[in-house]
Amino acid sequence: TNDVIFSGIDIYSMKIDSKVTSRFAHNVITSRAVNRASVSKEVLFEVELPKTAFITNFSMTIDGITYLGNIKEKEAAKKQYEKAVSRGHTAGLVKASGRKTEKFTVSVNIAAASKVTFELTYEELLKRHLGKYEMLIKVKPKQLVKEFQIEANIFEPQGISELEALGSFINNDLTQTIEKSLSGKKGHVSFKPTIDQQRTCENCSTSFLDGDFTLKYDVKRDSPGNLQIISGYFVHFFAPANLPRVPKNVIFVIDISHSMLGQKMEQTKEALLKILDDVKENDHFNFILFNNRIIPWKEYLVKATLDNLKEAQKFVQSIKATGSTNINDALIRTVEMMNEAHKEKVLPERSSSTVIMLTDGNPTSGELNQGKIQENVKNAIQGRYSLYNLAFGYDMDYNFLEKMALENNGLTRRIYEDSDSALQLQSFYDEVANPMLRAVQLHYPINATSELTQNNFNHYYDGSEIVVAGRIIDNDLNSFTADVKAQGANNDVTFTEQVDIEETAKALHDQEYIFGDYIERLWAYLTIQQLLEKRISAQEEKRKNLAAEALELSLKYKFVTPLTSMVVTKPEDKATIADKPVEDTSIQYSYPSRANSVDGD
Amino acid sequence: PHFLIDVPQKKDHLCFNINLDPGVVLNLVNDPDTGITVNGQLVGKKKVSNNGQTQKTYIGKLGIVNTQLDLKIEITTEKITLQNGRKTATFTWLDTITLQKEGLTMEINREKNLVLSFRDGATFIVVLHRVWKKHPLHQDFLGFYTLDSHKVSEHTHGLLGQFFQHIDFEVFDIRPGSDPEKPHATMIVKNNKLTVTRVSEKDYGKDPSHGTIIPCWFIHNNGTGLIDGAHTDYIVSNLF
């Protein structure tokens, strides 16, 4: 039948070309196919890309004619899209697909013996996570491909210290198909399996190329920071090494309501036991369990001595789930406990206080008004502690938790209900386990810079990196200085970085790896991301202004963000739209997705 | 087969078994407004043991009809047959395909599951459970999952369909059962007072290979008191 996509279509080439310059990745995926059937066929182009990426371009070329994607404001795009839908055409969309990815799909009808080329471009700023930058490329061609290749070129002005390339689908026999080279500032990875190497078995027509292709690397760090300047924009990467760790005071606030019963509770306990193994001796900690009651392990924070850790392990093992969910009182009690410990000077003077709450649902007892809870928590914390919310599963209002965490110098992370949930919890803890600096302030010449991205951070954690970008408005500036002030484990610290603008610009321009004005795009990407994040916790009027600002930048730099859409007009006059899905929408939560089933085992 | 009902408002699940003989066809979903009907035919073990115990049955064949789209889909453990008007297309579980027609998207994910989405309607997931071919007793069977069930009309009925609208229940007096892992409780649902048991069932909707363990309140005796009418009321004469 003509509706079936795989038959008669020969995808003869698929290329993934990645250029990474100073953590900013520019990826182009090109796929070429020909319709070998004697009738017209539908060709599907389906790509999974990281959620953190912004699509910047898409085109398809059919028999020499190129149809380009056009990035528009969401509402304007929607009108064009609705017009197409009202004529009975279907539209392709970008859909959230995995934990880290979203799926971009376009299909087009092409005539017999016709060729089509799809080209998708997306960009992202790679984040440093536990000491490495990571770039994920999802690989899943629909069939065996004559020319399949992944080419990645990395250029890092600081020099690359290590480079790994891993394929979740690559077995030992095929490890040699990944070529990797590393020399000073440049890294190169190439993966070109032949058609025979792609087969799952001899003479099979099925491909083993299905999974994650991951590049991991880190840069050399001769100094705590690195400043780069091109065409009037600068970026400052700050990740000092070999600092003493700041002691941490952490209260784990754990939802033990009835819905946690079963696997979720077991995985939480498993993760907490592993986390207890990693708590450092000069840290202080406590647990506050909550359902409709508030059940602290201890009435105060205790030092992580061997005896206390052993006792805590026993306590964790005894946790049982029952009752409803009182988030408000649990968090208020937590803040009171933390305040008391600080007042009584039980905690080290130079230490970092953190609250980590895990919940799998919305409040069902005590204060139920989510806005009121957010207000109460914000008033209680008063900016003194960081609140991290771990949202376990999908049965809660993510926006509620996200806003609450952002208002209190923290963030929210979804824990996916799966066999590795315990690992996800543990991995989140690892990220925030080692604060190296507190109250980090990055300063640049006031009269010479403008449009700075966020330059104040509550913490710098071991293995992460702080990135600040901005515009240089003083054209006569010869040298550029960045000053960083922060509170360290033993004393207040200051770092200074100075560069000669002309020399830096020249050195970077000489590199053939650089694609255009990447620092300007990196700045735009970071600015849009931060405006969208600020929007979550802003009041109505401010929200509108932040959205307007983010929209203007998204259109100017041609990024598909949650505020813009890309419309592609296909030869049959069908409009296809590419949207960026968001983690959560209020609509989803007013009608939670239900999965009623009949099955057996 | 095991029925698992998600009750998001209660952050909990209900579950029950329907024990009827192999060959019986049950109405699972019936939405008169959108013209969508789902029926399932039961299969049992290859050999029936004569120990007097109730024989466990599973879904072996599914029939999905959409009268508005003039569409009939028959799903067995061997193949998937799509009939659109006079046109028929047959696929096997070895295929990996995405099929898009006006108002319908069907994805077959080789040997794992089949995802059927009707535009502006619910999404159905059929999971293929493969059993070792030479197993002396067991044979392959199917699982059936519904997502976005709020999109169906309020007139939807059937063994699963009646639960697409919110169902209210209260559980109290939780007490130890004969198995310490499975406490008993009293449940008030649809004005009936029932004794229920806390058990765990597996949801294969998200992870077709391993499934996810879901704790639920088990309603005994073929869901009596929870389902509308008696379980035999849902027996229909054939798959379509």
The residue ranges of chain B in which pLDDT falls below 50 over 5 or more consecutive positions are: none
Distance between the termini of chain A: 35 Å
Q: Whole-number radius of gyration of chain A? A: 26 Å
Q: Unreliable stretches of chain A, pLDDT < 50, 5 or more residues?
A: 1-5, 88-92, 584-594
Query: Which band does the percent of strand residues of chain B land in?
Result: over 45%
Indicate the structural class of chain A: alpha+beta
How confident is the prediction overall: mean pLDDT of chain A? 85
Decide which structural class fits the backbone of chain B.
mainly beta
Task: List the strand order in the largest sheet of chain B.
Answer: 8-7-6-5-4-3-18
**Morphology call of chain A:** globular
Task: Please characterize this protein's 3D structure.
The complex is a heterodimer of chains A (601) and B (240). Chain A is α+β, with helices and mostly antiparallel strands and 601 residues long. In chain A, strand 4 and strand 5 (65-73) form a beta hairpin. The radius of gyration of chain A is 26 Å and the shape is globular. Chain A starts with 8 loop residues before the first strand and ends with a strand. In chain A, 40% of the residues are buried. In chain B, a hairpin with a 2-residue loop joins strand 9 and strand 10. The model of chain B has no long low-confidence stretch (mean pLDDT 87). With 240 residues, chain B is an all-beta fold. In chain B, 37% of the residues are buried. The chains are: A alpha+beta (601), B mainly beta (240). The A-B interface holds A 1, 3-6, 42, 44, 46, 88, 90, 107, 142, 257-259, 261-263, 360-361, 364, 395, 417-419, 591-601 and B 1-6, 8, 11-12, 28, 40, 56, 58-59, 87, 89, 95-102, 127, 129, 141, 143-150, 159-160, 163-164, 198, 200-207, 210-215. Strand 33 (596-599) of chain A pairs antiparallel with strand 1 (2-7) of chain B, so a sheet runs across the interface.
